[in-house]
Amino acid sequence: MAATDKVQIFFTKDGSRFWTNVYHVNALTLDAAAAWANIVLAGAMTNQLCDVFHVAKTVVDHLADDTFVSTPLNLVGEVTETEILPLFNTVKVDIAVAGNGRNDGKFIRGWLRESVMTDGAIASAALSAFDDIFSGLIADSTAAGVDLCDADGNLWLTATCRPAIQERQLHRRRKKVVAP
């Protein structure tokens, strides 16, 4: 069974440029998925987000039809820090999934700052905090009745952050379709 809903969470610094993360969920209703996105997901993502950034909105698309919910938010990051790493430096989260699917993964921007680095890698205390955020997100999502999964519907089981700082996921070029 494939995921029922696709959730996009939009982040920005000043409102002129945005970046997103996409999550897939299995929810009973579109409204349940939207409530989860605005409370559980947005809360988890702002936990380590630097305070110069904020969550601007969420968009939840129901994959079975054309219905969607777009919710404007203005949730400021909870970490005060002046020495923020450039946004192309990301935390890479590997997520083990149930079934025979390929592991899922996320690149998280806005969490890296000088104070969480040791010799070019994420310090162990920060890495543990990042792992706890995603473990808590999986548990809180299940408790809310909205299961995190990959696009194919394989449930998320465990999440592990890589200690090495990652470069952002590069945009994949789309092949040009030649009209006949």
Task: Describe the structure in your own words.
With 180 residues, this protein is an alpha+beta fold. The chain is 21% helix and 36% strand. Helix 1 runs antiparallel to helix 2 (124-143). The chain is globular, with a radius of gyration of 17 Å. The chain has one domain.
Question: What's a quick, concise take on this entry?
Answer:
This protein is an alpha+beta fold.
Overall geometry: globular
Which regions are unreliable across 5 or more consecutive residues at pLDDT < 50? none
Helical proportion, percent range: 10-25%
Largest sheet: 5 strands, antiparallel
Number of domains: 1
Q: If you average the pLDDT, what whole number results?
A: 91
Helix/strand/pairing class, anyone?
alpha+beta
> Roughly what fraction of the amino acids lie in strands?
35-45%
> What is Rg?
17 Å
For the largest sheet, list the strands in their spatial order: 4-3-1-2-9
Query: What's the total number of strands?
Result: 11
The H/E string reads EEHEEEEEEHEEE
Number of helices: 2
Distance between the termini: 35 Å
How is this fold's topology laid out?
Elements: E1 5-12, E2 18-26, H1 30-46, E3 54-62, E4 68-76, E5 89-97, E6 104-108, E7 117-118, E8 121-122, H2 124-143, E9 147-149, E10 156-161, E11 166-167
Antiparallel strand pairs: 1-2, 1-3, 2-9, 3-4, 5-6, 5-10, 5-11, 7-8
Helix pairs in contact: 1-2
Features:
4-stranded antiparallel sheet, alpha+beta, 2 helices, 180 residues, single chain, 5-stranded antiparallel sheet
